[in-house]
Protein backbone atom coordinates (compact mmCIF):
# COMPACT_ATOMS: atom_id res chain seq x y z
CA UNK A 1 0.00 0.00 0.00
CA UNK A 2 1.37 3.43 -0.93
CA UNK A 3 1.30 6.29 1.51
CA UNK A 4 2.71 9.78 1.71
CA UNK A 5 6.21 10.01 3.09
CA UNK A 6 7.31 13.24 4.71
CA UNK A 7 10.54 14.23 6.41
CA UNK A 8 8.67 13.81 9.71
CA UNK A 9 7.61 10.22 9.00
CA UNK A 10 9.00 7.92 11.72
CA UNK A 11 11.82 5.89 10.20
CA UNK A 12 11.47 2.83 12.47
CA UNK A 13 14.30 0.38 13.06
CA UNK A 14 16.71 -1.20 10.63
CA UNK A 15 14.09 -3.77 9.59
CA UNK A 16 11.60 -1.06 8.56
CA UNK A 17 12.42 0.48 5.18
CA UNK A 18 10.79 3.20 3.10
CA UNK A 19 10.72 3.49 -0.67
CA UNK A 20 10.26 6.78 -2.51
CA UNK A 21 9.82 7.46 -6.21
CA UNK A 22 9.65 10.62 -8.32
CA UNK A 23 9.11 13.01 -5.44
CA UNK A 24 11.59 15.66 -6.44
CA UNK A 25 14.98 16.20 -4.87
CA UNK A 26 15.11 13.99 -1.74
CA UNK A 27 17.92 16.12 -0.25
CA UNK A 28 16.01 19.41 -0.67
CA UNK A 29 12.84 17.78 0.66
CA UNK A 30 14.72 16.62 3.77
CA UNK A 31 14.44 12.86 3.26
CA UNK A 32 18.16 12.09 2.98
CA UNK A 33 21.42 13.80 3.91
CA UNK A 34 22.93 13.45 0.42
CA UNK A 35 22.44 11.46 -2.76
CA UNK A 36 25.77 9.67 -2.56
CA UNK A 37 25.36 8.78 1.16
CA UNK A 38 21.65 8.95 1.98
CA UNK A 39 21.92 7.12 5.29
CA UNK A 40 18.96 5.73 7.18
CA UNK A 41 16.62 3.18 5.69
CA UNK A 42 15.32 4.97 2.59
CA UNK A 43 15.80 3.94 -0.98
CA UNK A 44 14.21 5.00 -4.20
CA UNK A 45 14.36 6.91 -7.44
CA UNK A 46 14.90 10.65 -7.48
CA UNK A 47 13.43 12.57 -10.39
CA UNK A 48 15.58 15.66 -10.72
CA UNK A 49 13.81 16.97 -13.82
CA UNK A 50 12.97 20.19 -12.01
CA UNK A 51 16.65 21.06 -12.02
CA UNK A 52 16.55 20.97 -15.82
CA UNK A 53 13.85 23.64 -16.08
CA UNK A 54 16.40 26.48 -16.36
CA UNK A 55 18.07 24.61 -19.23
CA UNK A 56 14.69 24.30 -20.96
CA UNK A 57 14.25 28.07 -20.58
CA UNK A 58 17.67 28.66 -22.08
CA UNK A 59 16.86 26.39 -25.03
CA UNK A 60 13.55 28.18 -25.60
CA UNK A 61 15.31 31.53 -25.58
CA UNK A 62 17.73 30.22 -28.21
CA UNK A 63 14.85 28.93 -30.34
CA UNK A 64 13.06 32.26 -30.02
CA UNK A 65 15.85 34.85 -29.87
CA UNK A 66 13.45 37.79 -30.26
CA UNK A 67 11.26 36.74 -27.33
CA UNK A 68 11.97 38.31 -23.95
CA UNK A 69 8.87 37.10 -22.11
CA UNK A 70 8.12 33.45 -21.36
CA UNK A 71 5.23 31.79 -19.55
CA UNK A 72 5.46 29.16 -16.84
CA UNK A 73 2.48 26.96 -16.06
CA UNK A 74 2.95 25.98 -12.42
CA UNK A 75 1.14 23.53 -10.16
CA UNK A 76 1.27 25.11 -6.68
CA UNK A 77 0.46 21.78 -5.02
CA UNK A 78 3.44 19.91 -6.52
CA UNK A 79 6.25 19.60 -3.94
CA UNK A 80 9.10 21.07 -5.99
CA UNK A 81 7.21 23.84 -7.78
CA UNK A 82 8.49 26.68 -5.60
CA UNK A 83 12.14 25.68 -5.96
CA UNK A 84 11.68 25.18 -9.72
CA UNK A 85 10.14 28.65 -10.06
CA UNK A 86 13.01 30.16 -8.04
CA UNK A 87 15.54 28.39 -10.31
CA UNK A 88 13.68 29.61 -13.41
CA UNK A 89 13.57 33.19 -12.14
CA UNK A 90 17.31 33.13 -11.45
CA UNK A 91 17.96 31.74 -14.94
CA UNK A 92 15.65 34.34 -16.50
CA UNK A 93 17.58 37.16 -14.80
CA UNK A 94 20.89 35.75 -16.09
CA UNK A 95 19.46 35.48 -19.61
CA UNK A 96 17.83 38.92 -19.55
CA UNK A 97 14.34 37.41 -19.78
CA UNK A 98 11.09 37.89 -17.90
CA UNK A 99 8.61 35.25 -16.77
CA UNK A 100 4.85 35.21 -16.44
CA UNK A 101 4.12 32.52 -13.86
CA UNK A 102 0.53 31.29 -13.75
CA UNK A 103 -0.61 28.78 -11.14
CA UNK A 104 -3.13 26.21 -12.33
CA UNK A 105 -4.26 23.40 -10.08
CA UNK A 106 -7.72 22.52 -11.36
CA UNK A 107 -9.23 21.83 -14.76
CA UNK A 108 -11.05 25.16 -14.62
CA UNK A 109 -7.71 26.97 -14.13
CA UNK A 110 -6.19 25.76 -17.41
CA UNK A 111 -8.07 27.81 -20.02
CA UNK A 112 -7.66 31.09 -18.09
CA UNK A 113 -3.95 30.32 -17.67
CA UNK A 114 -3.41 30.06 -21.41
CA UNK A 115 -5.60 33.11 -21.97
CA UNK A 116 -3.22 35.00 -19.67
CA UNK A 117 -0.22 33.77 -21.63
CA UNK A 118 -1.84 34.93 -24.88
CA UNK A 119 -2.81 38.32 -23.45
CA UNK A 120 0.73 38.82 -22.15
CA UNK A 121 2.18 37.81 -25.56
CA UNK A 122 4.65 35.31 -24.13
CA UNK A 123 6.98 33.71 -26.64
CA UNK A 124 6.50 30.19 -25.30
CA UNK A 125 5.26 28.31 -22.24
CA UNK A 126 7.23 26.02 -19.97
CA UNK A 127 4.91 23.42 -18.45
CA UNK A 128 6.33 22.56 -15.04
CA UNK A 129 6.47 19.03 -13.70
CA UNK A 130 3.26 17.87 -12.07
CA UNK A 131 1.27 14.67 -11.81
CA UNK A 132 -1.79 16.84 -12.45
CA UNK A 133 -0.38 18.07 -15.78
CA UNK A 134 0.88 14.63 -16.76
CA UNK A 135 -2.69 13.32 -16.59
CA UNK A 136 -3.99 16.25 -18.64
CA UNK A 137 -1.38 16.71 -21.35
CA UNK A 138 -3.84 16.14 -24.20
CA UNK A 139 -6.20 18.70 -22.62
CA UNK A 140 -3.31 21.20 -22.28
CA UNK A 141 -2.37 20.72 -25.91
CA UNK A 142 -5.99 21.23 -27.05
CA UNK A 143 -6.40 24.39 -24.95
CA UNK A 144 -3.16 25.92 -26.13
CA UNK A 145 -3.37 24.93 -29.81
CA UNK A 146 -5.44 27.98 -30.94
CA UNK A 147 -2.85 30.36 -29.49
CA UNK A 148 -0.02 28.65 -31.36
CA UNK A 149 2.24 28.89 -28.31
CA UNK A 150 5.36 26.78 -28.30
CA UNK A 151 5.65 24.50 -25.27
CA UNK A 152 8.64 23.22 -23.38
CA UNK A 153 7.70 19.91 -21.85
CA UNK A 154 9.99 17.25 -20.50
CA UNK A 155 8.53 14.09 -22.03
CA UNK A 156 8.57 13.28 -25.72
CA UNK A 157 5.37 11.22 -25.45
CA UNK A 158 3.53 14.44 -24.55
CA UNK A 159 4.28 16.04 -27.91
CA UNK A 160 1.37 16.14 -30.33
Count of helical regions: 5
CATH class of the largest domain: Alpha Beta
Q: Look at the structure and give the mean pLDDT.
A: 80
Q: Roughly how much helix do the residues carry, as a percent range?
A: 25-40%
Structure class: alpha/beta
Q: What fold name goes in the CATH topology slot of the largest domain?
A: Rossmann fold
Q: What form results from the Cα inertia axes?
A: globular
- What is the rounded distance between the termini? 34 Å
The succession of helices and strands, N to C, reads EEHEHEHEHHE
Strands, count: 6
By CATH's scheme, which homologous superfamily of the largest domain applies?
Response regulator
Q: What's the architecture of the largest domain in CATH terms?
A: 3-Layer(aba) Sandwich
Radius of gyration equals 18 Å
Q: How many domains? A: 2
How are the strands of the biggest sheet laid out side by side?
A: 4-3-5-6
Low-confidence stretches: none
Strand content: 15-25%
Amino acid sequence: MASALSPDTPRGGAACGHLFANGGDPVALGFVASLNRPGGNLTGIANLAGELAPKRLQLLSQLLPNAALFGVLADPAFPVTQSTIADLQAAARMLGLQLVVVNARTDSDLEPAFATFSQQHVGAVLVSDSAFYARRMEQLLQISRPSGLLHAIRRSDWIA
